[in-house]
Please model this.
Amino acid sequence: MSRPRLDPGLLRTFLAVAEERSFTRAATHLHLTQSAVSSQIKRLEDELDLELFSRSTTRVDLNPAGEELVGYARRILSLGDEAVQRLRQHDVAGRVRLGVMDDYGTTLLPPILKTFCGAYPGIELQMETGLTAGMIARVGKSYDVVLAMHARGDASGEFLRRERTVWAGSDAMLPRDLDPLPVALYPQGCLFRRWALDALERAGRKWRLSFVSPSLAAVEAFAAQGLAVTVTKEGTLPRSLKVLGAEAGLPPLPAANIRLHVSPSADAPASLLAQHLRENLGAQRR
Model:
């Protein structure tokens, strides 16, 4: 015995009749004749071997089987529409200019961007890493999408997730015994630099900048040799470093918010990348 087939075309006709409670009004809505609508409903009922409507001379009502089918029909048609939309998106072509923090660009984003490029091979992706504070003002000019770090309370852009900010150093280092504390940080304009120095000042801890570089890898490599402590996101902490806290005599640091900035004139490729980042870096994933 063959299984019944739920033809999407018949389901659309069924939903029109169910919503209009009339074959005549459904026919008008679908731009069909009333006899065509009646024929399609009969085909669906014959396929299911079930009656779906209770008919009278003045009205058409759903019976229990019809009421149950309504939910399934809507889900089936919605899923079909979604599949068509998704498949058509694979033909999208263009270029997206992405700006992002150095640590995300080298750790979290590569596998996420790999799946994006695999799904949309016609989109050319250009990524620049660095201090994102200056990138935000250039969204729409130099960048289509920017993934940036913000202080809590900054409402610009779209919130994606929160990252714990931590002190980090090597196993060989004993920060509590160092006076002044050697610190490896990034240039002026970096939130981590400002937060670290402000926290040390408030705690009355003497410090000295022993290493400054715009290169994340260079700062982390210097700290990994036990020459200084640095600041990083806990989620991107490299294996060469360990988290240092109160036991090391270091003050707490503010949490960092990660926010998404998209050009107001974003085209389809940029919009698709922004949505991919939302789905893969959203707050629900942390």
In short: DSSP finds nine helices and twelve strands in the chain.
